[in-house]
Design goal:
The protein has 315 residues and is α+β, with helices and mostly antiparallel strands. It has 3 domains: 101 residues, Sandwich (Immunoglobulin-like), CATH 2.60.40; 106 residues, Immunoglobulin-like; 86 residues, no CATH class. Helices cover 19% and strands 35% of the residues. It contains 6 helices and 17 strands. It has a 5-stranded antiparallel sheet. Strands 9, 10, 11, 12 and 15 form a 5-stranded antiparallel sheet that branches. Strand 6 and strand 7 form a beta hairpin. The longest helix has 13 residues. The radius of gyration is 21 Å and the shape is flat. The two termini are 35 Å apart. This is Peptidase.
């Protein structure tokens, strides 16, 4: 079971968490395999990359220990499997081992292409774009490949319907037949009033209603230096993390600050309100760490964006 310290660092696109583990040689020799599953919503575009890498207690493990399962329509599952030899090597290389395993998982190399499987597992799709920083009112070129999953990811010629959505509204669409010998390309003029998350939805690949796939892409991505949070809000975050104020008081306070323009966060697409849902523990952990300067503003804002996206904070 993992500890209550799950966190996401958007500046590094890195997931981190830990679990209790006895690093004694006796315990390692009694451990044949360590298997972790990381469930990533497919709407979380930054982690829909082609491959992931991991560090365990500061030691980089081979990329082969992580396999990606994209066969679910809603989620990507990253399997991190350490065998006994992997664990022994980590114990020999790591410095200052404690009674836990510390995991860090992030994109292994380039952020692009993004990749996913269709719902029926027939096709794999890769998506990239230029320029990589997509801005409102600009033109972006999307490049995509349709690969046959049963033919060792060979590019194939397949019909497709593509729709682009923003806040649930279709803002562009295209249909065609993919190129089996090179990248497919479409140009998209981003409207001036579109910012935040846009969704590229591929449907009816090769005429199959079950052959669909979705990618989420950010327009006007805001960097760390563009996030504005007054210092005194850290007091509230610290009080909340130590249970001096409850979830409702903290959420209402943040909601007011965003609406009044006192606190500025990146544009965030909002789903249907689920305000009765409890605030996840990792957001509260992030708030406590942010209050004591253990993480930066962008990592804290990632939690606030989650609350906005899931309708817990309404702006």
């Amino acid at each position: 079971m993992i500890n209550d310290d799950f966190a996401y660092d958007p500046s590094k696109k890195m997931i981190s968490y830990s679990m209790q583990f006895d690093w004694s040689e006796k315990n390692i020799l009694a451990t044949s395999v360590m298997h972790q599953e990381i469930i990533i919503p497919k709407t979380f575009g930054d982690l829909m990359v082609k491959s992931l890498s991991a560090d365990v207690n500061g030691v980089q493990v081979p990329d082969s220990v992580i396999t990606i399962d994209d066969f679910s329509a809603q989620n990507r599952v990253a399997h991190l499997v350490l065998n006994q030899n992997d664990i022994l090597e980590i114990s020999n290389k790591a410095v200052g081992l404690t009674n836990k395993m510390d995991f860090s998982v992030m994109p292994s190399a380039d952020n692009l292409p993004l990749t996913t499987m269709t719902e029926n597992a027939q096709f794999k799709l890769n998506l990239s774009w230029e320029p990589q920083n997509i801005e409102s009112g600009s033109t972006v070129t999307f490049f995509f490949d349709i690969l046959d999953a049963f033919l060792l990811d060979r590019p194939v010629s397949a019909s497709y319907d593509l729709s682009i959505f923003h806040n649930g509204e279709k803002i562009d669409q295209a249909s065609g037949v993919s190129n089996a010998s090179g990248h497919n390309m479409i140009e998209f003029d981003v409207p001036d009033d579109v910012t935040g998350i846009i969704t590229l939805q591929f449907e009816n690949l090769n005429g199959s209603k079950l052959a669909d796939a979705v990618f989420s892409v950010v327009v006007d991505r805001i960097g760390v230096d563009q996030i504005a949070i007054p210092d005194w809000i850290k007091n509230n975050a610290g009080w909340w993390a130590t249970d001096q104020i409850d979830d409702s008081a903290f959420v209402q306070g943040i909601q007011y600050l965003i609406k009044e323009g006192i606190m500025i966060v990146p544009p965030t697409e909002t789903s249907e309100s689920i305000g009765s849902q409890a605030v996840p523990a990792w957001i509260k952990n992030n708030a406590g760490w942010w209050a004591t300067d253990q993480i930066d503003d962008s990592a804290f804002v990632q939690g606030i964006q989650y609350l906005v996206q899931n309708g817990i904070i309404v702006i």
